[in-house]
């Protein structure tokens, strides 16, 4: 996170509405970090894999966000978005390393600290292989999805640079597309240095929020397709298709959050209900209907929806009825968005999915 002098802020006052407070330590520019941590052996099968501390090096570049969903949220600092490239040694010969690329957003929570959330992908150097790596049960694919959360605290500050310390948690897995998939949960501490070469603040201006453009209620429909590897490692993928209908109500006092209720009907090819072989199950017994409720956060063209659901018909005997779905939407225009999500039963990944969403009703301008 970088700092800037009051004089430099004054030069940009026509473009930057942030008040001239040196302690706001505007987080912009290049960043490099070094860290150490530990991969949690959260399953018994991983106890023998973790033999050393994990080690990490990262580089990032980001911009200060102004306007849009950040309006009214800058009293304790500024928002930041950027891309981080990192390499992590996972702490064991059978674990290998992960090269990752994450899209990060930092939220000011106090004058000295800020929260950080990220999503992206990681490339595992040593996935499971029956011959080459039979003990590497954390992941079984080179390409894995990544989720990230952290808390950053400022240590030292200069005119155009700042030192911070970050406590982080990062998860990598393939969402059960391929087994085994125990996942990698890495916790650690990073020390970071961020700087700029000049007084200009790299800045991204979001479309300003307008009360007249707010749609208090919207109805949308999504068509989704996913896959699940059920059974022995390397088994065939079972397709899963869903039709998702959601109603969304945007809160009057919030520009970035709202409530959501949804109905979901799906055809689950991997469903195990009757205990019979796959070929002996009636196709109608593979249909699942569920109701869901939760919250959605809006970040300009990107939205994140988290819904807790209950399977009403034909639950999987192994997984049960209660489940959580987390979906990231990217708006192509005011009506159409593409989706990437994960459904989880019993706090473990069950299957990922891709989808396309159409929103009905009033066309919005952003």
Throw out a few tags for this protein.
366 residues; 17 strands; 2 domains; Porin; flat
Q: Using the coordinates above, name the CATH class of the largest domain.
A: Mainly Beta
What is the N-to-C succession of helices and strands? HEEEEEEEEEEEEEEEEE
CATH structural fold name of the largest domain: Porin
Rounded to an integer, what's the Rg over CA atoms? 23 Å
- For the report, how would you describe the main beta sheet? 8 strands, antiparallel, barrel
- Quaternary class: single chain
In terms of DSSP E residues, the strand content is: over 45%
Task: Estimate the global geometry from the Cα principal axes.
Answer: flat
Which residues sit in consecutive blocks of at least 5 with pLDDT less than 50? 1-27
Structural class from helices and strands? mainly beta
Instruction: Say how many strands there are.
Output: 17
What is the mean pLDDT? 80
What would you say the CATH architecture of the largest domain is?
Answer: Beta Barrel
Distance between the termini: 28 Å
* Strand arrangement in the largest pleated sheet: 1-2-3-4-5-6-7-8
Estimated helix fraction: under 10%
How many distinct folded domains?
A: 2
The count of helical stretches stands at 1
């Amino acid at each position: 996170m970088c700092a800037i002098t009051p004089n430099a802020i004054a030069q940009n006052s026509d473009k930057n509405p942030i008040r001239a407070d040196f302690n706001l330590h505007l987080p912009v520019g290049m960043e490099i970090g070094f860290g150490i941590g530990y991969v949690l052996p959260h399953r018994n099968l991983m106890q023998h894999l973790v033999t050393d501390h994990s080690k990490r090096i990262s580089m990032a570049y980001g911009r200060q966000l102004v306007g849009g969903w950040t309006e009214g949220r800058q009293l304790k600092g500024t928002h930041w978005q950027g891309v981080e490239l990192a390499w992590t040694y996972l702490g064991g010969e059978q674990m290998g390393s992960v090269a990752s690329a994450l899209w990060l957003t930092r939220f000011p929570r106090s004058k000295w600290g800020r929260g950080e959330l990220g999503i992206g992908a990681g490339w595992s150097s040593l996935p499971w292989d029956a011959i080459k790596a039979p003990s590497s049960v954390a992941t079984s694919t080179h390409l894995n999805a990544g989720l990230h959360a952290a808390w950053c605290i400022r240590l030292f500050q200069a005119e155009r640079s700042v030192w911070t310390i970050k406590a982080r948690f990062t998860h990598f897995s393939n969402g059960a597309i391929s087994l085994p998939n125990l996942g990698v949960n890495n916790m650690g501490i990073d020390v970071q240095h961020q700087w700029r070469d000049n007084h200009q603040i790299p800045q991204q201006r979001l479309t300003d929020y307008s009360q007249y453009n707010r749609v208090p209620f919207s109805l949308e429909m999504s068509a989704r397709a996913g896959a699940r590897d059920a059974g022995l490692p390397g088994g065939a993928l079972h397709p899963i298709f869903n039709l998702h209908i959601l109603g969304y109500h945007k809160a009057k006092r919030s520009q970035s959050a709202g409530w959501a209720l949804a109905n979901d009907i799906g055809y689950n090819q991997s469903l195990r209900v009757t205990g019979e072989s796959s070929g002996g199950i009636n196709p109608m017994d593979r249909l699942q209907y569920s109701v869901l409720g939760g919250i959605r956060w809006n970040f300009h063209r990107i939205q994140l929806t988290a819904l807790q659901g209950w399977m009403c018909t034909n639950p999987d005997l192994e997984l049960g009825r209660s489940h959580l779905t987390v979906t990231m939407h990217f708006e192509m225009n005011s009506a159409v968005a593409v989706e990437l999500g994960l459904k989880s039963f019993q706090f473990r990944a069950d299957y990922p999915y891709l989808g396309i969403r159409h929103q009905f009703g009033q066309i919005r301008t952003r």
